[in-house]
Design goal:
The chain is 46% helix and 14% strand. With 246 residues, it is α/β, with parallel strands linked by helices.
Amino acid sequence: MTTQTRKVAIVTGASRGIGAVIARKLAAEGFAVAINYVSSANEASALVVELRQAGHQAIAIKADVASSADVARLFDETEQQLGKVDVLVNNAGILKVLPLAQHSDELFEQTFAINTRGTFNTLREAATRMNDGGRIVNFSSSTVGLNLPGYAVYIASKAAVESLTHVFAKELRGRQITVNAVAPGPVATELFLHGKSEEQIQTFAKMPPLERLGQPEDIASVVSFLVSPAAAWVNGQILRANGGLV
């Protein structure tokens, strides 16, 4: 099936967590979905099987977003198997909570390699490979507005993503491509829950005025809106989805 009959979406880091829920939602909305992963091969394969059994078109592609060669191949394989890309969702990311002074060189570089360079690599590729009228959704974080201790390097990597979002939206003038970012608050995923006590989890849950953690579906719904015709006039924006936390 070609892009003429079905729009094509790449979702990075889509084998589990928020990315997997986004992939499911976009597939249900008629997109052919390329599920990008770097290490979770079994989860990615299982998700592809699940989506295909439900009648959707999906493939899994292993690629490290921090590698420009891998990202070029991600677009190559998507184009060959599904068609030219209409939607790019930059969901892949890592988070290690640690005081700035305790960060190693390696952890600093890894955080920026995946969160910032990974976004840069896919944006640069999308500039020449994406269909006109497409949609790009980057991922920031509401921690950028919270400035919590322990999050300095992570926040810095995501603040850079917000700047890339604002500028890239302007650089694509004339292409009818929108570029926005979602900035979730705490979301109940394995990544967030791992290593936290019940007390810590409840503390985070009580922080927003809506008094709960976000669910992956909450974020997937925002992404779904941003890639839909309903969001055609939303461009260069950071949408904080956090229940009023900040």
